[in-house]
Specification:
The structure holds two protein chains of two kinds. Chain A is mainly β. Chain A contains no helices and eleven strands. Classes of the chains: A mainly beta, B mainly beta.
Chain lengths: ~110, ~110
C-alpha cells in the first residue's frame, strides 16, 4: 500500500512564528509533490508544488524536497491566524496511473 | 481565474435513491477525477477519466458508481443506490497534464444519505 504520512497535529504556533509541516512518502518513483490547504468544510486548495530537490519559495511559503530521504516539508513564515487550516501533502503514484494520493493532513493552529 | 465548478453544493437523499453529482472542469484540462472525503477522514481517490473513458478506479468505486462526460463540458458522478456510508464530500478535480500537472479541485458536493 502506497502511503503518504503526516503528523496529524494539531501544531500550534504563535502569530508571527514559523510553522514547519512534514511529510514522508513511500514511492521512490514520485517526481512531483504538492501541498494543499483545506479549511474546515472546504475543498483542498493548491498552495505549493515542488519537483526538484531543494527549496522552493513562494511568498511566505517554502517547500523543501529531499528525494533520497523521501521527505517533503512546508515552512510558513510569519504565520497568521488565517493560516489556521489543515495542510495536506499529496504525491502522485506512478504505479497507480499518477493519481494523487493524499496524506491525512496536519492541523495547524496559529494563535494571536 | 478558471475554476472547477460543482453542483449541487449539498444534496440530501434517502438510502437507495440515485444521485448524480455534476462538475464542469477547467476548460483546457484533459484529465478528470472524483475524490471523496468522509467527515474527519482523508481525501480518497475514486476514479480518473481521460479521453472519454475511465483510466483508473479505486476499490471504493464499485458497481454502484459510474462516471460520464455527456458533452464537452460536464463530468458527472452517479451513485445508483445510495447507502448511508456514501455520505461524504465529493470533490471533482481536473488537470492539464498527466505527469506533472497540478490538480485543481471544485468546491465539493456534500452528500447526506438518510
Amino acid at each position: 500500500q502506497k502511503e503518504v504520512e503526516q503528523n496529524s497535529g494539531p501544531l500550534s504556533v504563535p502569530e508571527g512564528a514559523i510553522a514547519s509541516l512534514n511529510c514522508t512518502y513511500s514511492d521512490r518513483g514520485s517526481q512531483s509533490f504538492f501541498w494543499y490547504r483545506q479549511y474546515s468544510g472546504k475543498s483542498p486548495e493548491l498552495i505549493m508544488s515542488i519537483y526538484s530537490n531543494g527549496d522552493k519559495e513562494d511568498g511566505r511559503f517554502t517547500a523543501q524536497l529531499n528525494k533520497a530521504s523521501q521527505y517533503v516539508s512546508l515552512l510558513i513564515r510569519d504565520s497568521q491566524p488565517s493560516d489556521s487550516a489543515t495542510y495536506l501533502c499529496a504525491v502522485p503514484y506512478m504505479e497507480y496511473g499518477n493519481k494523487l494520493v493524499f496524506g491525512a493532513g496536519t492541523i495547524l493552529r496559529v494563535k494571536s | 481565474e478558471p475554476e472547477v465548478t460543482q453542483t449541487p453544493s449539498h444534496q440530501v437523499t434517502q438510502m437507495g435513491q440515485e444521485v448524480i453529482l455534476r462538475c464542469v472542469p477547467i476548460s483546457n484540462h484533459l484529465y478528470f477525477y472524483w475524490y471523496r472525503q468522509i467527515l474527519g477522514q482523508k481525501v480518497e481517490f475514486l476514479v480518473s477519466f481521460y479521453n472519454n473513458e475511465i483510466s483508473e478506479k479505486s476499490e471504493i468505486f464499485d458497481d454502484q458508481f459510474s462516471v460520464e462526460r455527456p458533452d464537452g463540458s460536464n463530468f458527472t458522478l452517479k451513485i445508483r443506490s445510495t447507502k448511508l456510508e456514501d455520505s461524504a464530500m465529493y470533490f471533482c478535480a481536473s488537470k492539464a497534464r498527466v505527469l506533472t500537472g497540478e490538480l485543481f479541485f471544485g468546491e465539493g458536493s456534500r452528500l447526506t444519505v438518510l
